[in-house]
Specification:
Blueprint lengths: L10 H8 L5 H17 E3 L5 E3 L29 E2 L2 E2 L3 H17 L5 H10 L4 H7 L5 H14 L4 H9 L3 H12 L11 H4 L5 H7 L2 E6 L3 E6 L5 H11 L2 E6 L2 H12 L6 E6 L2 H15 L3 E7 L2 E7 L18 E8 L1
Parallel strand pairs: 6-7, 8-11
Antiparallel strand pairs: 1-2, 3-4, 5-6, 9-10, 10-11
Helix pairs in contact: 3-13, 5-8, 6-7
Length: 336
């Protein structure tokens, strides 16, 4: 029996030594992983591994189709950086931006309320959730539904509270069951910090409320009566912090929201463009003029959100934390 060592066998070694049939996809994955590891370090004259990011990554253009092979002498290697890649020219930067826009458009995020209401139609109604949990009775549900029908407005939870005396905490718990998410609190909430996590219109229009960062890697975001996963995903892509979503009681939510909206946000500029090509040119122009050490683009419903970091930090950290005041700038583009 062969001795086992601490090195995992690759797919090719298993196939060669043990006649094991390995799917082609697994072998491609192994080859890709090996190439990534090989490109991560470069040996020096003494054989010591040096991170590529120390020099190579800052001299290679991020445009895969770039055939220049050289860089204009006046082009700085420190900026501009777009999505962790440096652009050697305005033409290459424009191509990189076009690829990012194509990626965001192909993701196919539906527009605002349509997406939320569409998701809601596929979920068990809140009244049935509360009834199934035994938190309300059939007469209470009928009374609330009748009042909702007569008045022609209002949420079922509001009518259960006002007409049936149900505590608002039970409505929040029902929403938690309906959306299969936790009930969040505002413990550790810092409105000044959370105001820098995302642009102000996202809170006002989509109701996403950043609450706190845990362990410097998890950002908790709350909603009042629904979840908007695309909003949370956009914040995750920009900040690099893993987002966890949940619902908050109405009173706490409204109070925390007002506190955040009263704080200073990252400087923001809105721009309306005519079409997709104009969007790419506008973003390229902003990056060229801003000369950021890091920048990222993500689509959130009808907005294309571009964030630029200006402070000289390492390329990873600069895009993985909530920025300090004056460190970043936000740009919101819409196609009108």
């Amino acid at each position: 029996m062969p001795l086992l060592n601490d090195r995992s066998l690759s797919a090719r070694e298993l196939q060669r030594d043990h006649a094991v049939e390995i799917p082609l996809g697994v072998m491609k994955r192994d080859a890709y992983a090996a190439s990534r590891m090989a490109s991560r370090t470069v040996g020096n004259a003494r054989g010591v591994g040096i991170p590529v990011s120390a020099f190579s990554a800052r001299t290679e253009c991020g445009n895969p189709a770039c055939g220049r092979g050289w860089t204009p002498p006046w082009r700085s290697r420190r900026y501009p950086y777009f999505e962790d890649r440096w652009a050697c020219s305005e033409r290459c930067l424009l191509e990189m931006v076009k690829m990012a826009i194509a990626r965001e458009i192909d993701d196919g995020v539906l527009e605002g309320v349509e997406e939320v209401s569409g998701q809601h139609r596929h979920r068990i109604p809140l009244g049935l959730v509360l009834l199934g949990q035994g938190w309300i009775t059939h007469p209470q549900l009928r009374k609330a539904l009748e009042m909702q029908r007569l008045k022609g407005k209002g949420r079922i939870g509001d009518w259960l509270v006002s007409e049936c005396g149900l505590r608002s905490e039970w409505i929040t718990r029902g929403l938690s069951v309906q959306w299969n998410c936790p009930v969040l609190t505002t413990d550790g909430f810092s409105p000044e910090t959370m105001a820098r996590a995302l642009p102000k219109p996202f809170i006002e229009e989509y109701g996403i409320l950043p609450l706190r960062v845990a362990a410097r890697r998890i950002l908790y975001v709350g909603f009042q009566d629904h979840l908007d996963a695309s909003s949370a995903y956009a914040v995750e892509q920009i900040s690099g912090l893993r987002t966890e979503c949940g619902v908050i009681g109405e009173e706490r939510y409204c109070k925390a929201k007002d506190m955040v909206l009263g704080c200073r946000f990252i400087d923001m500029k809105r721009t309306i463009v005519a079409d997709r090509d104009a969007l790419a040119r506008s973003i390229e122009r902003v990056i060229e003029q801003g000369k950021p050490t890091a920048s990222r683009l993500v689509r959130l419903h009808r907005y294309y959100w571009l964030r630029l970091w200006q402070e000289e930090k390492d390329s990873v950290r600069s895009t993985r934390q909530i920025p300090d005041p004056g460190e970043a700038a936000d740009y919101l583009f819409t196609i009108g």
